[in-house]
């Protein structure tokens, strides 16, 4: 994330792990070559998805992973498709943030 | 022979290189300051292109970069300001900056415009040697710009020789493997500088990082061809009501 002059822009994300203006070269390559599709999620969408997982499965996801879960609501699947979500972290570290949304 | 090489041809010792941040303290101060530095007896100027994430710089230069960016400084603006640098000013100018803004500007366009306005060399601390050799070096050379690599006390002899073979102009000896503007006992680094001297490199060596006044400049000059003063100079311009006069005063305090 940068200005037209190449100055790095101060980013914002509700999750500490995503509050960063850069992207790794592997992701950049996957995007550029079209091997992967990238979706975005707002703070609210991530929190909603986290609450949904907590209610349905009793799992509190990390705020970072909650962004991946939020993508499920933006995609459509057939009944025969297997869907794997990488739940990369646990959410007890994020309880203070989640509490503000309860 | 480049303007930078000519300096070292004429002067083997106590070469003074002053670093200033472009667009600091005020947007329009860059060119008047370069001219003031030339008048005061500076041998070279290292002109910093302000960057939001200046990873090799300490708090003083970081702060000056933030101010310069807020003043509206950019590479495009800097080149506009430098249009009238030559021919009246003869001082060699080395641009120092980071790769991101340079790549955003376009690497070849950057080298081409730098050469056109009379810039003599480049210091790009986050341009690794491998990428220099494989992708960027030939463009820099094509436009006749010198390239200056940095070495630290931790750099192996083999790598110092490699960087010396790639550099033209001079070698930038970092006196500590940290950021600029830190206090360092010069005696602690003199052994390292003497070792560089004994290696008989093809390029002259200027010491950077930790040089702040006449005493440290003279000390560094005993072990190298000269030194670069950055943070201390930038600090001298902080809150200055007359940056040109304060720049002259600073240089005189080092040289007298």
Which key features would you list for this structure?
heterodimer; A: 102 residues; mainly alpha; 37% helix; 0% strand; B: 256 residues; alpha/beta; 9-stranded parallel sheet; 49% helix
Walk me through the structure.
The complex is a heterodimer of chains A (102) and B (256). Chain A contains 4 helices and no strands. Chain A has 102 residues and is an all-alpha fold. In chain A, helix 2 packs across helix 3 (63-72). In chain A, 21% of the residues are buried. Chain B is of the alpha/beta class. Chain B is 49% helix and 14% strand. In chain B, strands 5-4-3-2-1-9-8-7-6 form a 9-stranded parallel sheet. Classes of the chains: A mainly alpha (102), B alpha/beta (256). Chain A binds chain B through residues 2, 4-9, and chain B through 51-53, 69, 74-76, 100-105.
How many helical stretches of chain B? 12
Mean pLDDT of chain A: 95
Sheet with most strands: strand arrangement of chain B: 5-4-3-2-1-9-8-7-6
Mean pLDDT score of chain B, rounded?
A: 93
The count of strands of chain B amounts to 9
Gyration radius from CA atoms of chain A, angstroms: 15 Å
Helix-strand makeup class of chain A:
mainly alpha
Counting DSSP H or I runs of 4 or more residues, the number of helices of chain A is: 4
Name the beta content range of chain B.
Answer: 5-15%
Say how many strands of chain A there are.
0
Fraction in helix of chain A: 25-40%
Based on secondary structure, the structural category of chain B is alpha/beta
- Based on CA atoms alone, the radius of gyration of chain B comes out at 17 Å
Helix percentage range of chain B: 40-55%
Biggest sheet details of chain B: 9 strands, parallel
